[in-house]
Every structure is written in C-alpha cells, then in structure tokens.
Amino acid sequence: MKCRYKILIVDNEENEEAVSLLKKNLEQEGYGVDTSLSATEALEKVKNTKYHIVLTAIVMPQMDGLDLLREIKKYDPLAQVIMMTEFSTMGRILSALEYGANDYILKPFKSTEYVLDIIQYAVKKLERWRDAFIEIVQ
Question: How many separate domains does the chain show?
C-alpha cells in the first residue's frame, strides 16, 4: 500500500547524514524516497517526477524552503509539503501555512516514529482526496 507513495527529502549539504538516515528509515517503511541537497535541484526533480510528499528544510542557500514550497504548489497543488527547521519564528510558520504547507516539523526530530506519524497523516490526506475525486468522477 505505501509503496505507491513517493517522497522527496530536501535539505542542505550540512545535514546530508541526517537526510540519508531519514531516507533509509522511510524506505524500510515501503516508501519510494529521493533526496536533494538544494532547493534548486529539488525543484528540477519536482518538475520531472511526481512526488506525493516533500519534506523540505526552510533555511537553505540560494533558494529557501518557503520559495520552494510556493513553486512546488504551482506544479502540484495536492503535494503534501512538510516544512522542517531548526530555527523557527511565528512569521515563518504563518508564511508556510499561507503558502500551502501541510505540516511543520522542528529539528532535531523527536524520533523517527514522530516523523513517520506525520508522513502517515499526509498519506491519509492524499487518500481522502483521491477518494473524493473518484466519487466525483463516478
């Protein structure tokens, strides 16, 4: 069931080890996972591949996660975008919500299970949307 969901993890090079560990944990749960170490690279991947869920850091060089969020939503409004950050302000949280973020995780993560719960919640939202579309089409 989960294998049909594709996830993109976006964070900068400073967090490459954490990204690799998260990727491994998600793959063990049956998700297809790609990674990107920059927002600009991630945007190119989003343009060429369907990702159901994108986990993205906010603070990154060149293009930040909020700009990436806005661009992702242009390509796929249903993509579940989960923001990740170590440095949060009320303004960033409100901007993320305004731009269409589906969730917000503070780093370091409480636990792998915590991140998996958030992803499973995003999957349930995707499935509700899919069911609604199927019902409308029938």
Answer: 1
**Which carries the bigger pLDDT value, residue 106 or residue 16?**
106
What end-to-end distance do the CA atoms of the chain give, in Å?
A: 23
Other CB atoms within 10 A of residue 76 CB: 15
Q: How far lies 4's CA from each of 30, 36, 63, 102, 126, in Å?
A: 9, 20, 29, 20, 12
* pTM score of the predicted model: 0.91
Tell me the residue range of the domain where 13 lies. Answer: 2-137
| Closest to 51 in 3D by CA, of 27, 76, 68, 30 | 76
Q: State pLDDT tens for residues 25-66.
A: 999 999 999 999 999 999 999 999 999 999 999 988 889 999
17 SS3 class: helix
Task: Identify the CATH number of the domain in which residue 11 sits.
Answer: 3.40.50.2300
Other beta carbons within 10 angstroms of residue 35's beta carbon come to 18
Other beta carbons within 10 Å of 4: 11
